[in-house]
Design goal:
Pfam families: mTERF. The protein is mostly helical. The protein has 16 helices and 2 strands. It has a domain of about 150 residues: Transcription termination factor 3, mitochondrial. It is about 55% helix and about 5% strand. A hairpin with an 8-residue loop joins strand 1 and strand 2. The termini are far apart.
């Protein structure tokens, strides 16, 4: 076994495969042995005669009996795909074949490998291998990795170091490994966000919405998509349910409010309000009726909301939504008109003042 490396059973299927964990590469080791060495590699799924002086079988890489060996057709298909994108001069067939072996050893089927190479087709194979390896380090399997990249192909354009930094930052927000894996699967584009964008969202929750640190962590666990939204939209959504509906912080967190569009929240709330089924609490937090909980209003399907909460028909709700949209449009026009009148008045006052002088 190469110095500085140890073989351990891989946590990724199939279970018969093994992974190379590079703890601390020894001096003089060829940088090409691990595609991530230049950025502090922790994992390389690659073992080839060129890099290690051993064949795949002698290095301990046994082909799963249930999976066919990489076919020449796959190599040719990928090579032609790269040629179409003018990348044929960047990598030879021999090196490309070894990279395809690496993807296979990670647990990807031939069909999945072709799907990977169709994403960001102009991207260099070496970059693709490094990003995929880094995602597997987060605990994803081949299927989850492919799904995540299909949702957000732009992740492939990031460096392994950038992915590690994003993952470390999310961990500092108390996103545990399981939650972090779920974030990657559900919202992989979060990894493409800037530090400032993530910080801005966290600050809004802490400073503008006055959530506790634990509550912010729970929101990120339950609704990681909030990191993709504009901070002012999140603040407005919170202010609406807090001031307009009288919902407290704890109930907001448990309701998964930030998964629901604000238009849907307002439609359901105001509909109930006009039916006499919801009241804004007074200064003492009291109402004359028992309000349904926020999660009962927004976490159910529209059909269940109408039957169990509003006790109304779909037709009534559709008519109401159209009328409410008209009201809001007219209200926006009135506000714009008032702002214009106010600006004109200030301009007249300024002109009169200049003439008087």
């Amino acid at each position: 076994v190469r110095r500085g490396c140890r073989r351990v059973p891989s946590t990724h299927p199939p279970v018969t495969r093994q992974s190379w964990l590079c703890a601390s590469p020894s001096a003089g080791s060829p940088a090409s042995f691990c595609p991530l060495l230049s950025s502090g590699c922790r994992l390389a799924f690659v073992a080839s005669s060129e890099w290690s002086g051993e064949s795949l079988s002698s290095a301990g890489w046994e082909q799963d009996s249930k999976e066919p060996a990489l076919s020449g057709k796959l190599l040719e298909a990928v090579r032609l795909s790269l040629a179409e994108q003018q990348r044929q001069a960047d990598i030879g067939s021999s090196e490309l074949g070894k990279m395809l072996d690496s993807f296979s050893d990670m647990g990807f089927s031939n069909a999945q490998i072709m799907q990977l190479f169709r994403l960001q087709p102009k991207l260099a194979p070496q970059t693709r291998l490094a990003v995929v390896s880094e995602l597997l380090l987060l605990g994803l399997d081949a299927d989850s990795t492919l799904r995540a990249l299909q949702k957000s192909p732009e992740v492939l354009r990031m460096t392994a170091q950038q992915l590690r930094h994003r993952a470390d930052y999310l961990r500092r927000l108390d996103l545990g490994e399981e939650n972090l894996q779920q974030v990657v699967i559900d919202c992989p584009s979060i990894f493409t966000l800037s530090w400032k964008k993530i910080d801005a969202v966290v600050r809004v929750f802490k400073e503008k919405c006055v959530f506790t640190v634990d509550q912010v962590t729970e929101i990120l666990h339950r609704c990681p998509n909030v990191l993709l939204e504009e901070p002012h939209d999140l603040e407005y959504k919170f202010q609406y349910v807090y001031f307009r509906m009288g919902v407290k912080h704890k109930a907001v967190v448990k309701s998964d409010l930030f998964r629901t569009p604000i238009a849907e929240v307002k439609n359901r709330h105001i509909f109930l309000e006009r039916l006499g089924l919801y009241q804004t609490p007074d200064k003492k937090g009291q109402t004359q009726i028992v309000n349904p909980k926020l999660k009962e209003i927004i976490r159910v399907s529209e059909g269940d909301f109408l039957v169990k909460i509003a006790h109304s028909s779909l037709q009534e709700f559709e008519v109401f939504k159209k009328l409410l949209a008209q009201e809001e449009e007219e209200g926006d026009q009135d506000i714009a008109s008032e702002e214009t009148d106010s600006a004109n008045e200030r301009e007249r006052e300024r002109s009169d003042s200049e003439e008087g002088n």
